[in-house]
Amino acid sequence: MYFDNGQVKVDPKNDAQLLARAEKAKTVDGYVIEVKRYASTSGSASLNQRLSEDRAGNVTNILLQKGHVPLTRMLAPGAMGEAPQVGNDKSAEGQTGNRRVMVRVLRNKAIAGI
Fold first, then answer.
1. What are the backbone dihedrals phi and psi of residue 73, each rounded to the nearest 5 degrees, phi first?
2. Residue 110 — very low, low, confident or very high, per pLDDT cuts 50/70/90?
3. Fewer Cβ atoms within 10 Å of its own Cβ: the N or the C terminal residue of the chain?
């Protein structure tokens, strides 16, 4: 999921995708959800760190409140700030790719009893 420059609010059009991911996760024995967030290098490093934290917090809140994912199934969100960059930050397209939140469903074998 991608964000506009300086924005932290999740576009409502992404809610359905997040909620579908939450429902799919619930079918996996021992699931946990990881939320990692990133920022482009536009602006100061401290601002970008804060932006990445706020973006993941908003995504996590949707998963908790609307997706009814128990907090015990959420990993502590990781704020990655400006690193690592996946796109060329010298272009608008590259910057857009760097302003993202990744949501992954993982399987904890200990929880699953494997």
1. -100, 10
2. confident
3. C
